[in-house]
Design brief:
This protein is an alpha/beta fold and 966 residues long. 50% of the residues lie in helices and 16% in strands.
Length: 966
């Protein structure tokens, strides 16, 4: 009897001391310092709801279990132990693992977690209500005094028989889960037992050495004495109890669940017969194992094999295209494996290290243990290597013809947000370019000057996050427009804004990126296509969460450009892509001195109107500017009758067959039908069909023999690769113009390779569906140097080609309703009088000169030079003189002398015009691998680390609380 009383006292002590200790830590520390910020992050959308629910469950589990233990099992110590080890401890451990270790769940890991939770619930029902069948037919099976309590309402609704079958199924799984979990925990129980014993002896020895006094006094130095006196004792008590309980948990947990499963099986068998009980149990286990086996097949294994070799014919390509969903699933799973799995199979070595170092196991025995552990943990381990992340990203781009972060943004976003760490979730959220900077106000002003106008865009940005942010725009302007300035400011005071410098494109990019890394204010405006521009500004001041300072709270940006009048009016920048920034109905907009209000979807999607109406409606007149060196640029307005289509020419058409072109298949068909009807009969038109890796490109001598409906759009091909394939197929054939038919291709997949070919004929890229954000410099150079251009319509491109040829050799381009010509000497009076347009009112028009300078640079780019750097310097000198952005010269805003010195040094380098492709792909903050270790610390090191960690946490929480109060 005395022995039973001793055990009853031990059981009562274990349950109440552990729960009371933990409840103190939960309500004094975890809830106010971790729970509240986690809930706030969930409300803000930074962290998924499931993590806040898990945090709530983590706090509720010991609270609810303590209350139930006090009400139902207070006088039953043995039942308290069953309740603790069968319900509270495993459920609490499950919540902790979900909250701090498991991030985004996979189908396989979700099945395991859901099954464990189901078995815990079934065990709690068995403890509280016993067998749910006809109890009068079951005798001497239950040892629980609660077996005759009234059943829950749910089980009463579904009926006694269904309740019994449901309970049998759950308890059949409970046997499997009990064996699996007990075995898994056993791997850790033995090392924990040794560490706990050794650590206890070490703490006792160190305590009497008084080595802990100095670190303890340091906590008082930082004002954390009150928290230290509470946290350290509670933490050590909790740590000691948890370690001691963890040692016996595997055997008790397994015994309780197996015993509970056996009892319910016997009760069911007594009521319905052993055959039904056996068939029911085996059926449930077999079904569960079948589902488990299916979910264990990680999709990337088969996908990697499928894409290992490029398809060699259209049949194989079409087969792969039909499996696009499976391929997408596999590649995304591989790319996000650090977020979805605890480790790869190969990198999981902690069991090996523990048993080799602690138990001095031989290598072979330790590896055998590791392999068996990997088998049990297979739902949580990635079947591949860490190198699969980069491999999957590359294969995704090659197959889907877009960058993975852009193609599966939501999947990436959910993965990086799946953590209880608020700051880590914020970092991941920022990496996938969410809306973090609010456009507070926008003002557009237009100063008309007859046929051209000065336009200013003024925007104010407010950061919505506590981190510094970058605003990023891709936009386009008319090809004849000239960007003349960009400024930054902390306020709207024009006298205090930071001015721009026109610099070689490579030097400007290098300095900007360096300053962003150093977190200093710069802005960079670049031209990355005939019409395309890229604008970046950093940093938008962080939002202040706790303290107020005198620093800036917003960023002001001014952008100016000059543009020619078109029939629709004055062209506004057309947005191609934005990052981090957003606007809504609360954004204040003033356009041409008129307040503009947008609402709903329009307010969220509209950056600027496409055109502003021109006040002056008089007929367009010719313009002329005489620039330095006797260079004359003239602009002659064109009427519709001045445009024509080519005749008697020889053209080459290159067709992009990459995967993204499938979305433009209708436009492809219409384009080639137009070519056959309007160009092929009067001109020779050869077709070159580019192809992704695996199949060679094709040559079709006459475009009229081509059927666009039979094309298989597959993979990805860069523009420079299409040109390379064209050069290999054309042989000695010559063409008057080369047209490349593509779509709004993925600029993100471009690279910095140089083109090893030159095209003497003008190269025109026709982008169906819209212009791309930009081009890599090698491709842009071919377009510019060849005298080509860009368009979104084949008819427009051919009209511009034919009209340019008909306008004379001095014509630089035909664009935006004007024929632009270049000459070194003034035109004769005779020529001027015979012109069909009016004589320019002011040949020295200063305001028009920046626009003319842009055309001069276009003319200079077509001239051949043996020294390319000298030619680039000459074009840059023109841009710098007239302060305009060109494909070779960028604008950078600097704020201090150190930045200016750095720019001066970059401008002196020979690579000052070498600009790298910036895809905008973000480097995601990958979580650490918790199952990979390089070595195992000694027990005393673990204890010292624990003491240090507790001290740091105390100081951190104290400082954080002071900041929140401040």
């Amino acid at each position: 009897m005395k022995i039973k009383q001793v055990f009853d006292g031990v059981f009562q002590t274990i349950f109440w001391v552990w729960n009371l200790t933990f409840l103190s830590i939960v309500y004094l520390g975890i809830l106010p310092l971790l729970g509240v910020p986690l809930i706030q992050a969930t409300i803000d959308g930074t962290i998924p709801l499931e993590f806040s629910l898990t945090m709530a469950a983590t706090i509720a589990v010991p609270t609810v279990c303590t209350v139930i233990g006090a009400r139902r099992f207070r006088k039953q110590p043995l039942q308290l132990m069953r309740w603790f080890y069968g319900v509270e401890a495993p459920l609490f451990l499950l919540c902790l693992l979900r909250l701090f270790l498991l991030r985004e769940l996979t189908p396989a890991s979700s099945q395991i977690i859901a099954t464990i939770a189901l078995c815990i619930a079934a065990f709690s029902v068995e403890m509280l209500y016993g067998y749910l069948g006809q109890r009068e037919n079951v005798q001497n099976i239950f040892d629980s005094p609660n077996s005759h309590n009234q059943q829950p309402r749910f089980f009463m609704l579904i009926g006694e028989k269904r309740s019994a079958w449901l309970q049998l199924g759950c308890h059949s799984l409970m046997v499997v889960v009990g064996i699996w979990a007990a075995t898994l925990l056993l791997y850790y129980a033995l090392p924990v037992a040794l560490y706990t014993l050794y650590g206890f002896l070490f703490v006792v020895i160190q305590f009497f050495k008084f080595t802990w006094v100095s670190p303890f006094l340091e906590m008082f130095k930082y004002g954390a004495w009150a928290s230290a006196l509470i946290w350290i004792p509670l933490s050590f008590i909790l740590f000691g109890l948890t370690c001691s309980l963890f040692v016996v948990m595997p055997s008790l947990y397994g015994f309780l669940y197996i015993h509970s499963g056996r009892k319910i099986w016997q009760s069911f068998a007594a009521q319905y017969g052993k055959n039904k009980a056996l068939m029911g149990s085996l059926g449930v286990i077999a079904a569960w194992l079948a589902i488990f086996s299916a979910l264990q097949q990680q999709p990337q294994v088969a996908v990697m094999k499928m894409l290992a070799t490029p398809p060699a014919n259209d049949t194989v390509r079409q087969t792969l295209l039909a499996k696009s969903d499976m391929i997408r699933s596999g590649l995304v799973n591989a790319y996000l494996s650090p977020y979805r799995y605890l480790s790869t199979v190969g990198e999981n070595n902690h069991i090996y290290e523990i048993y080799k170092n602690i138990w001095i196991f031989p290598d072979e025995a330790a590896q055998t243990l590791q392999n068996s552990y990997n088998f049990l943990m297979s739902p949580f381990l990635y079947q591949g290597s860490s190198a699969d992340v980069e491999k999957a990203e590359k294969l995704y781009g090659e197959f889907f013809d877009t960058e993975l972060q852009k193609g599966d943004t939501e999947a990436v976003k959910h993965a990086v947000q799946s953590t209880s760490n608020r700051e880590e979730a914020k970092a991941g959220l920022l990496n996938v370019n969410q809306e973090k900077v609010w456009l507070q106000s926008q003002e557009v002003t237009v100063k008309e000057n007859g046929d051209w106008a000065d336009v200013q865009l003024y925007e104010v940005y407010k950061n919505q996050t506590p981190n510094l942010q970058e605003v990023f725009y891709y936009f386009s302007l008319p090809e004849s427009a000239a960007v003349t300035g960009v400024w930054l400011g902390d306020t709207g005071d024009l006298n205090k804004r930071f001015v721009f410098t026109v610099s070689p494109r490579g030097a400007a990019q290098q300095v900007y990126n360096q300053q962003v890394r150093e977190r200093v204010d710069p802005a960079l405006l670049e031209q990355i296509g005939p019409k395309q521009y890229r604008l970046r500004a950093f940093p938008i001041p962080a939002k202040r969460e706790f303290t107020q300072t005198d620093g800036p709270t917003e960023m002001h940006l001014w952008l100016t450009y000059k543009v020619m009048r078109q029939p629709q009016g004055w062209a506004m920048p057309v947005l191609a892509e934005k990052r981090n920034i957003f606007w809504n109905q609360n954004t204040r907009r003033t356009i041409a001195e008129k307040e503009v209000k947008y609402s709903g979807k329009e307010a969220r999607e509209t950056w600027l109107p496409p055109f502003l109406p021109a006040a002056a409606q008089q007929p367009l007149t010719a313009q002329q500017a005489i620039l330095a060196g006797g260079n004359i640029i003239s602009a002659k307005p064109l009427a519709d009758a001045n445009y024509s289509l080519p005749q008697g020419k020889k053209f080459a058409v290159i067709l992009d067959t990459s995967r993204s072109m499938a979305a433009e298949s209708k436009e492809v068909k219409e384009t080639f039908e137009w070519l056959k009807a309007n160009a092929a009969g009067k001109n020779g038109v050869d077709l070159y069909i580019a192809s992704a890796a695996g199949m060679p490109p094709k040559f079709v001598e006459d475009v009229r023999n081509f059927d666009a409906a039979k094309v298989t759009f597959y993979g990805t091909i860069q523009l420079k690769d299409m040109l390379q394939q064209f050069a290999q197929l054309r042989g000695d054939k010559s063409y008057d113009t080369v047209f490349l038919v593509s779509d709004r291709h993925s600029y993100e997949l471009s690279d910095d390779r140089k083109l090893k070919l030159s095209i003497s004929s003008p190269l025109w890229t026709v982008h169906l569906g819209g212009l791309p954000p930009g081009y890599d410099d090698a491709t842009l150079k071919v377009i510019q140097d060849s005298g080509g251009g860009v368009s979104t319509d084949m008819k427009e491109a051919m009209q511009r080609v034919a009209t340019t040829a008909a306008s004379g050799e001095s014509t630089v381009s035909v664009v935006d309703g004007y024929a632009w010509s270049y000459a070194k000497t003034p035109q004769s009076k005779k020529t001027a009088k015979s012109a069909t347009v009016a004589e320019p009112k002011n040949a020295g028009n200063e305001g028009f000169k920046p626009i003319a300078a842009r055309q001069l640079i276009t003319a200079l780019s077509k001239q051949k030079s043996s020294n390319q750097l000298t030619q680039l310097d000459a074009m840059h000198a023109v841009a710098k003189n007239f302060k305009v952005v060109t494909p070779y010269s960028s604008m950078i805003v600097l704020v201090n002398d150190a930045q200016r010195e750095q720019l001066k040094a970059a401008e002196a380098k020979s690579d000052r015009f070498d600009r790298e492709v910036e895809s905008g792909k973000e480097e995601l903050s990958k979580p650490n691998n918790p199952l990979n270790v390089s070595g195992v610390p000694e027990p005393e090191e673990w204890l010292l680390l624990a003491v240090g960690a507790i001290g740091l946490l105390v100081i951190f929480f104290r400082q954080r609380r002071a900041k929140m109060v401040g």
